[in-house]
Write a structure and sequence with these properties.
The chain is mostly helical. The protein has four helices and no strands. The protein has one domain. Helices cover 83% and strands 0% of the residues.
């Protein structure tokens, strides 16, 4: 479980950093259908890209900890889930977006429960190891 959690945590970190940098560098061109959206959307998209880089760095920080802090994973996964919920709200208000946004929403809604489960399992393992070590004294 710990290995799967560490792998997914690193994957979340590096992919978020890469996606964020892509948006910072390309602006509107990074968003399907937004190439002609104008300067306000470009500015917002680049800012959000930088924020996503920071989000990815938080995942990478968590991946470097020994053990990985389950609480941090839960918070970061919760933010990711909130992004997916935001996409659902957009779908309800404005209709179906570009197909790639549907793929992203599926990942944002499907991956957090797995991360929550892995974080909980890792936390239970850590507690068990502490109890065993304490009992052995």
């Amino acid at each position: 479980m710990a290995r799967a959690l560490r792998t997914l945590t690193r994957l979340m970190g590096w992919s978020s950093v890469a996606i964020g940098l892509y948006h910072v560098l390309l602006g509107n061109a990074a968003i399907p259908g937004a190439a002609s959206a104008g300067t306000t959307v470009d500015s917002w998209g680049r800012f959000m890209g930088a924020s996503f880089v920071g989000y990815g760095l938080a995942w990478l920080w968590a991946a470097q900890q020994r053990p990985i802090p389950a609480r941090a994973v839960r918070w970061l996964a919760g933010v990711f889930l909130l992004g997916g919920i935001g996409r659902l709200l957009s779908l309800a208000v404005h209709g179906w977006p570009h197909w790639f946004q549907i793929v992203l929403a599926s990942i944002e809604l499907g991956l957090p429960p797995i991360l929550f489960w892995l974080a909980d399992a890792e936390e239970r393992t850590q507690r068990s190891e502490v109890r065993t070590a304490t009992a052995a004294r």
